[in-house]
Putative NADPH-quinone reductase (Modulator of drug activity B)
Amino acid sequence: MTKKILVLNGNPKSNSFGQHLADIYSCEAREYFEVRRFNLSDMTFNANLQYGYNAAQVLEPDLVDFQKAVLWAEHIVIVSPIWWGGLPAKLKGLFDRTFLPDFSFRYEKDNPVPVQLLSGKTSRLILTMDMPAQHVEEQAAPVIAQLDTYTLQFCGIQKAQINLFGSLLLATPFDKQKWEGSVKYLGSKGL
């Protein structure tokens, strides 16, 4: 049976280095695995969870398709920039709108520990940033906590494998080539 991989380019810009990395990963992975790909820039939805969990908010078709892909996937790869020490707002909104109670987690009775509904899946985060190399881990820490620990792991997805690439502003062609090679390898192995 072939591994099922969801690749999400989490950059809201339609042309970015993150999209390039997601293209490389997807292209290589398709040689060996089943791949479903989403570009945040192509998705149309209201990123605001305007009622919280107090009232239902109808999911737009792109969000329904994304939820189906999350359930289908065994491995989830998220490529995202780090902006202002956090996730792009639209990417945060994607998770706010789709990782809902009774889809990705559920509370039972008075137990504050959720039932994790996405257990058994693995993930990888490929994060880019403009910070100089000596500050990459420090800048990435809040994003890793938010996206991996308090979103993916909260819902039962195993602790993410992580790749940090930066500084994009100071990167040489050699640096970018090395990062591209790393992503190509990951795609070929479905990691």
